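Late entry, written up from scratch paper. The run itself happened at the end of the previous shift, but nothing got recorded in the book at the time, so transcribing now.
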Amino acid sequence: MTRYGVIDTNVLVSAMLKWDSVPGLVLKHVFGGNLIPVFNGEIMAEYREVLLRKKFCFPEEAVYTVLESLQEQGIFINAGKLDIELLDDKDTVFYEVVMEKRKKDTGTMSRKSTS
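Output as recorded:
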């Protein structure tokens, strides 16, 4: 069974800080092909901006390797803006991508079931 997921930036940071952790396990599933990340340009830009913060001390090469791997393993979703309010406005883009992926999956399933 193929699983898809939007990876929260904090999960990505935590995985890179401590590979042997639950967030590290999430990335292992991505790199192992068991979890397909979904994202858009705004999410990738946030990943890049946060992972390159000096306070984390991640080597730039490692950051770009992880980001390239996510892009190679994942699916770019061109999600439209939704009129919703979340507790943290920065989470809206993640929700939008999830909902767009869900809409595409539901549409595909509906077409298959009618044939």
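Helices lie at 9-17, 22-31, 41-51, 60-73, 92-114.
(Scratch paper discarded after transcription.)
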